[in-house]
Amino acid sequence: MGKNILKRIDLIFKEEPDSKNVLKKTLSKSNDELINELIASGLKGRGGAGFPTGLKWKLTAESKSTEKYVICNADEGEPGTFKDREILTQVPYKVLTGMAVCGRIIGARKGFIYLRGEYKYLLKELNAEIKKFHAICDELGLKFRVEVFMGFGAYICGEESALFESMEGKRGEPRNKPPYPSDFGYLGKPTVINNVETLAHTFTIFQHGADKFRELGVKDSHGSKLFSISGDTPTPGIYELELGMTVEDFVNDFGDGDTKAVQVGGASGFCVPRKKFRETRIGYQGKLTGISLPTGGSMMLFNSSRSMYNLLSNYLEFFTEESCGQCTPCRVGTQQLIEGIRAVKRGEKPASYLDKLLALTETMKATAKCGLGQSVANSFQSIVENFREEMIY
Amino acid sequence: MTSKVNITINGTPLAVDKGTTILDAAKLLGIKIPVLCYHKDLCIAGNCRVCVVEVVGVSKLFAACATPVWEGMEVLTNSLLVRNSRKHIIELLLSEHNADCTKCYRNGNCELQDLSAEYKITNQHFIDLAHTREYTIDDFSPAIHKDDSRCIRCQRCVRTCDELQSVGALAVINKGDKMKISTFFDKSLNEVVCTSCGQCVIHCPTGALIEHNYIEEVWDAIADPEKYVVVQTAPAVRVGLGEALNLSAGERVTGKMVAALRRLGFNSVLDTDFSADLTILEEGTELLHRLKANLVDKDNKEPLPMTTSCSPGWVKFFEHIYPEMLSHMSTCKSPQQMFGALAKTYYAKKIDVDPAKMVCVSIMPCTAKKFEADRPEMRDSGYKDVDYVLTTRELAIMIKQAGIEFADLPNEGFDTIMGKSTGAGVIFGATGGVMEAALRTVYEIVTGREVPFKDLNITPVRGLEGVKEANVKIEKALPEYKFLEGVEVKCAVAHGLANARTLMDSVKQGKADYHFIEIMACPGGCLGGGGQPIPTTPEIRQKRVEAIYEEDMSMSLRKSHENPEVIGLYKEFLGQPYGHMSHKLLHTDYVERQRY
Amino acid sequence: MDALQEKIKEVVAHHGRERHNLLPVLQEVVEQERYLSDYAMTLIAEEMGISAADVYGTATFYSFMDTVPRGKYLIRVCKTITCYMKGKNQILMALEEALKIKLGETTPDKKFTLMETNCLGWCHKAPAMLINDDVHTELTVEKVHSIIKEYKERP
User: Fold this and answer.
1) Which pLDDT value is given to residue B7?
2) N or C: which end of chain B has fewer CB within 10 A?
3) What is the DSSP annotation of A99-136?
4) Mean pLDDT, chain C, whole residue set
5) Residue C27, C-beta contacts closer than 8 angstroms, at least 6 positions apart
6) Residue A188 contacts by C-beta under 8 Å, 6 or more apart in sequence?
7) For chain A, percent of residues with pLDDT exceeding 90
8) Which among B211, B235, B256 is the end of a domain?
9) Are C85 and C149 contained in the same domain?
10) pLDDT bucket at A296, cuts 50 / 70 / 90
């Protein structure tokens, strides 16, 4: 157990009456009421990008089409993230309920859970849960069906448009945006795609009301969030915490006393060095003091025995392999970054070459087709800028 | 009515239709945004990112080719951020590209090279990835070479092969740094469904996909005093060649081309248009034969519809995709191969040259012709009927190598015996041309009258629409063809293999009752062939179409059966169309091929 | 019609011929055949009306879609950061020792194939590996040997 400096929240995994209760409750309300409730709660996407969930549902509801879809993104592939699996294991009914309510609001009769191939062992129990859930839907006269779609080993499929491509039987290559999923998603139809945790939160909001959720966290970052905590910590695991905490508080709670850096948000996130622990808060951009970092909930701690060069090269290897390869900045950029830091380390390139690479990451951030290529800059810049000497010697 | 969207580009306001991309909007203002993965023939990919532009107020850049404008959008196409990003992207592409330009076949005609020159990429900031990798070079196909080290992964070839041609020989495989363009199980192009059409070649921005060139072999033959080198030129070459020699698109250069070929040292300069006319007589007779067999004798061993067989890319496609329907294809060889078979028999005898010493070269707008000439069936003269096939591009290279100032050449005429042609032979170069030529002749054979279209121009089969149809009703048939009296001969024309597939699928499913189908593998027909000058775009194809029909109108004879040299050939050598000699030399059969 | 043809006809009929069923079809074939042979892919392409190159291109995008024969038990050791920090390399060495093969190889009896993979989502219980669909976490050298011993005894 941690030192309990940060308040533990127990909403997501809290045992609740089954789906029927919440479904009934929502059936008695209008679509507008439900959307307004969701917007009032301040819930933002828990996959990492932080798009307001209520707005997403609203836009898709307004999109005109007889065919729409709800997709639960369970392609949890970000290094250091493992919370969604736990939600799907412990409280799958919350996720299914969220999907069904969303389906009713936007006008979708079909939902999919895109489950990463690495979690295939969950399939049997999940399908059993879905069967039970379908019975409840039928009982309430709700025409909604959920199916699991299995991924097969491709990190990029967590990117929503790549996920659609994958579900359509193609290579998981991200699409050009616009159009966005609310207009043109799976099979070209309006689609809501939400992270597992986001959907689970909607259950809480519909069960207990927007206020209960909104009172947690800080301005612009409401509610609680599941954190996947790993690395050099005596207490790795999954924790539900309030948004808005400082990294310092986090480290005091979960560190091993020698924490040198915390990687917030996985390989595509930011590395926070010890000297910035105090000024960095975890949450979505808003009027917070200091730096505010959005996150899908991955928190990896590193103590002073760790080489930040090894860390960065591990991330970059990951990205060069998991890039879909279609766009130039990501496909070639990732290769240049890893070859570049190796060359500097070996002394084949001067230390100043790191600045060329930093400039390259700015280009990747500005020009890559999707979030993967754009976010490689996050870890690269935060590691190279804060631990430059480790890259050279 | 389409609604307008108000935007500014580099500060200049303009209103454009909703849905217009930034790229097209900029074009309206005369602002060029560089592109690589974009091609007018293909769907938008937005993957090279060279066309990125800045939108004021948004931190990330947008791909101009893939982004529709929105109300109030303020676009900057040349901001510092755009310039630096674009330069980075070009540098990245160069870093994984074998940029050994002086040793590249596309040196001087390469979009990446142009862009690199434009942005003055004079030093390599990034690590050279190209020379640390193992790249595959596939040079097994007699038509197309694929060199992965030159590939920039823009996927234009894949989209071409897939969308334009529905062949699907090329695909993107693997991901990340291992991503590349390949074939089924990384087999060689000559082992897969590739039709050798060469559309990938004319859509490739770099030297990753090029034709298998035979320039040196042809120079060697010309230089060999023992050899007698005969050259034939396809109809579409004369409306494309000028583009590769600094003339404008759509310029007809028949006379200059003949003059150039003489100056290159070919012994006889002859015309594939001659054998195109011949093809019409053979194929027209075959059609009448099939019509009679099917309509009168109820014998469908050689079924209807009969499809044309002039386009070797189409023939190979048919063999791969519709192996169960091979009997639908006309047994006529293509004009190139008819020419070859006659050159080393009839012509050799006429000019008293030992066919063993004759080298038959053809200039084609096509890469599949290289494959066709290599087919084992194509040796009916007792020799390889056509020895070397050069594309329009290769001929242009030879003309340049010989130091010939093409624009200043006089107009010269083809040599005789197999050099005379009619307008019907010329229009083989455009989609619908074979159909039109066939109808001009067949209608007249059957009725004794000219085909009832003004100036013989059968306009329903002309133009660049994907699938065209025309019905010709036979009235007052001559006694011999009474069985066709009142019959409405139903014809269809398709160009580009995707259209061909649509058309043939409807035939296969029994949804269509055509008698005669013309198919050309390439968009626009041969004038848009895979061996034509690069670039080939919809606009350029249109110009070449116009040139072809101008050429037709300029000819004194416009019906194949009036070609005096063809008449002479039958009289002296072949006897009857579709007769014994024709079957021996001018007809062929087909083989079933696998579908991958 | 051979057995594989029959199998693939059945699988495609079950999922449907539309393109969006390609992944489930490929997954089922991989599961049953342990990999996607070129023959299997041509059959799938034919049945679903997709070009074989496209099927191959799609399959090779997904790391779990093997296009070369694999052993009955496919071991995938996580190589991403936390597992790497917590001794992934020792685990690999232990596996190589226990199986007498190198990374990427298959045992001569076709029982085991040893591979690496990206993040399995068990960072809090690193190092981790998958054997087929089953996950094994908090690995130690001893644990690896006993796991392999147990799998070796399986039929």
Assistant:
1) 98
2) N
3) HHHHHHHHT--EEEEEE-GGGGGGHHHHHHHHHHHHHH
4) 96
5) A150, A152, C65
6) none
7) 86
8) B211
9) yes
10) confident
pLDDT at residue A285 in the model: 58
From chain A, pick out residues whose CB is under 8 angstroms from the CB of C126: 230
Residue C121, chain A, CB below 8 Å: the answer is yes
- Residue C64 located in a structural domain: no
With CA atoms as reference, report the closest residue to B171 among C23, C12, A332, C61: C61
Question: Are the Cβ atoms of B162 and C54 closer than 8 angstroms?
Answer: yes
Most A-contacting residue of B53, B70, B87, B88 (CB-CB within 10 A), to test interface: B88
Give all chains having 3 or more CB-to-CB distances under 8 Å with chain C. Answer: A, B
Within-domain flag for B251:
yes
**pLDDT per residue as tens digits for the range A55-86:** 999 999 999 999 999 999 999 999 999 999 99
- Using a CB-CB cut-off of 8 Å, the residues of chain A touching B46 are 176, 327, 369
pLDDT(B2) > 70: no
Domain coverage including residue C77: 73-153
Q: State the pTM of this model.
A: 0.96
Pair of tokens at residue A138: 């039928």
CA distance A233 to chain C (A): 9
Cβ–Cβ below 8 Å for C19 and A169: yes
Residue B282 has pLDDT above 80, yes or no: yes
Q: Which residue of C has its CA nearest to A154?
A: C62
Domains defined along chain A, listed by start? 19-214 (3.40.50.11540), 217-303 (3.10.20.600), 308-392 (1.20.1440.230)
Span A204-231, average pLDDT: 90
**pLDDT above 80 for B1:** no
B184 to chain C, closest Cα gap in Å: 4
Domain-located, residue B123: no
Contact A154 B60 (CB under 8 A): no
Angstroms from B203 CA to nearest CA on chain C: 19
**Between B168, B175, B595, which is nearest C54 by CB?**
B168
Is residue B129 in a domain? no
Rounded CA-CA distance A175/A168 in Å is 13
Would residue B593 count as lying in a domain?
Answer: no
Residue A191 forms beta bridges with which residues? Answer: A69
> What ipTM does the predicted assembly reach?
0.96
Pair (C81, C29) in one structural domain: no
Residue C38 sits in a domain whose CATH number is: 1.10.10
**B484 plus B552 within the same structural domain:** yes
Rounded CA-CA distance C149/C136 in Å is: 14
- With CA atoms as reference, the chain A residue closest to C77 would be A118
- In this complex, do B179 and A326 lie within 8 Å of one another by their Cβ atoms? yes
Closest CA to B523 of B390, B429, B431: B431
List the one residue out of B214, B233, B210 whose CA is nearest residue B222.
B214
Work out the mean pLDDT of chain A and round it to a whole number. Answer: 93
Which residues of chain B have a CB within 8 Å of the CB of C38?
A: 184-185
- On whether residue C122 sits in a domain, the answer given is yes
Answer yes or no: do B558 and B543 share one domain.
yes
C32 domain-assigned: yes
Q: Output the domain CATH number for residue B541.
A: 3.40.950.10
**Chain B neighbors of A327, CB-CB under 8 A:** 46-49
Q: What is the CATH number of the domain that holds B232?
A: 3.40.50.1780
Mean pLDDT of B3-32: 97
Tell me: the pLDDT tens digits for B408-424?
Answer: 999 999 999 999 999 99
Residue A57 token pair: 């549902």
Weakest mean pLDDT among A9-13, A148-152, B273-277? A9-13
In angstroms, the CA B516 to CA B533 distance is: 31
**Active site amino acids of B:** 283, 286, 310, 330, 369, 372, 377, 526
Say whether pLDDT at A219 is over 80.
no
Amino acid residing at A58: K
Nearest chain C CA: its distance from B176 CA (Å): 9
Return the SS3 of B442.
helix
DSSP states along B548-559: HHHHHHH-S--S
Domain assignment present for residue C43? The answer is yes
**Residue range(s) defining the domain that contains residue B108:** 104-114+136-211
B137 touches chain A (CB under 8 A): no
User: Using the beta-carbon criterion (under 8 Å), do B170 and C53 form an inter-chain contact?
Assistant: yes
Total domains, chain C = 2
Identity of the residue in B174, B175, B596 whose CB atom sits nearest the CB atom of C53? B596
